[in-house]
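Hi V.,

Quick status before I head out on leave. The structure for the redesign project is tokenized and pasted below; the design run finished overnight.
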């Protein structure tokens, strides 16, 4: 009897109150978990050794023989014929026409005509039109459109996107960088080394003889090792949540306002400005200018240059040069180069290679497995006849966080 009365009371209450009553009457749910192994990548520091090659130089004394060129001074004697000039003067007489300028004055007077203005006044009469504004009234008829609004309710259908989460397996690259050692050839260099009398020609392959001693020889350095970082892939399968949307259609009541127009006629009186023209007589004085010609005499004397030729005799001294041959003895110094062989001692630095190991630290990625506790869907125990409605899968929130256990 009590159960039926409670059911009748719940019929008229809102949905949120029904969910609250259902959760209060239901028993405590039983939570279960499942264990799952998950790979975890962590950074681990590592220590290693690398080979370092150092070069040291040792000084050695080497004696070689070099050719030195010395300069000696010597004299060379020879006879030279030289020309000696002798200068004498002779007179030369000739007649020259010399121009002489004289200035004369000529009368170049002229007449100048000048215009002289004379100003007088006279009366002038003319008619002028002037505009006068008059105000008049007139009736104006206007047609107006008066808006009338009407409101109606219409159904509007719209689409809503609802999120849905699915789990998809995908392959992910969890690779890492590893060290790769590459050998490199040593550097070649030239040095003085003792060579025997017999040697093999590298071009022809024949055995030949030469003077034993120090010769420049190409040497090869030790092999070096270079460490490079190389990427090594590691593909792992993972489960990734993917959220997509599902479209739903909903209906909504929307008020719609419609506006209509109604014609009305309005009569009003308004003032109007009308222009009118009036004739007026105007008298004004106008200046009149007349011009009169006046002749004036200008006196002017112009200088004129007159040139005449005058005969003049001139005497000019002309130099005459004669040459005489004279013999002279000359001494010319010159230099001669003489070759001498001299021993030269040099200090040569001999390279010595020393190899040693040096420690260095790098970081390496290491993968390990962790065991995690993941909650399973809760199965409630029904203790009352009031059933709780099923919730949306997107709104389910786990009651306890997952526990991570390290292996």
């Amino acid at each position: 009897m009590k159960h039926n009365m409670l059911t009748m009371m719940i019929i008229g209450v809102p949905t949120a109150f029904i969910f609250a009553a259902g959760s209060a009457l239901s028993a405590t749910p039983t939570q279960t978990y499942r264990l799952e192994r998950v790979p975890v990548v962590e950074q681990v520091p590592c220590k290693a050794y690398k080979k370092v090659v150092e070069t040291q130089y040792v000084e050695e004394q080497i004696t070689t023989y070099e050719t030195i060129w010395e300069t000696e001074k010597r004299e060379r004697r020879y006879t030279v014929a030289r020309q000696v000039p002798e200068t004498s003067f002779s007179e030369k007489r000739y007649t020259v026409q010399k121009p002489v300028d004289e200035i004369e004055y000529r009368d170049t007077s002229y007449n100048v005509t000048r215009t002289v203005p004379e100003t007088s006044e006279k009366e002038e009469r003319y008619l002028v039109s002037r505009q006068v504004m008059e105000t008049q009234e007139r009736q104006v008829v206007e047609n107006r459109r008066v808006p009338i609004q009407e409101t109606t309710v219409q159904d509007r259908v719209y689409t809503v996107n609802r999120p849905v989460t699915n789990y998809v397996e995908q392959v992910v690259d969890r690779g890492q960088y590893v060290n790769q050692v590459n050998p490199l050839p040593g550097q070649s260099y030239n040095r003085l080394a003792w060579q025997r009398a017999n040697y093999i020609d590298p071009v022809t392959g024949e055995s030949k003889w030469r003077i034993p001693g120090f010769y420049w020889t190409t040497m090869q350095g030790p092999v070096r090792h270079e460490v490079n970082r190389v990427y090594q892939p590691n593909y792992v399968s993972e489960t990734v949540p993917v959220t997509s949307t599902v479209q739903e259609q909903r209906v909504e009541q929307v008020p719609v306002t419609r506006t209509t127009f109604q014609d009305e006629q309005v009569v009003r009186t308004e003032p109007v400005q009308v222009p009118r023209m009036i004739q007026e007589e105007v008298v004004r004085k106008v200046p009149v200018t007349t011009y009169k010609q006046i002749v004036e005499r200008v006196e002017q004397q112009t200088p004129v240059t007159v040139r005449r030729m005058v005969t003049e005799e001139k005497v000019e001294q002309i130099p005459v040069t004669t040459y005489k041959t004279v013999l002279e003895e000359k001494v010319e110094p010159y230099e001669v180069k003489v070759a001498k062989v001299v021993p030269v001692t040099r200090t040569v630095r001999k390279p010595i290679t020393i190899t040693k190991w040096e420690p260095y630290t790098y970081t390496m990625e290491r993968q390990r497995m962790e065991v995690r506790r993941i909650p399973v869907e809760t199965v409630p125990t029904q203790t009352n006849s009031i059933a709780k409605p099923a919730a949306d899968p997107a709104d389910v929130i786990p009651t306890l966080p997952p526990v991570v256990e390290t292996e």
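Above is the designed sequence. Residues 187-220 form one domain.

G. will cover questions while I'm gone.

Best,
W.
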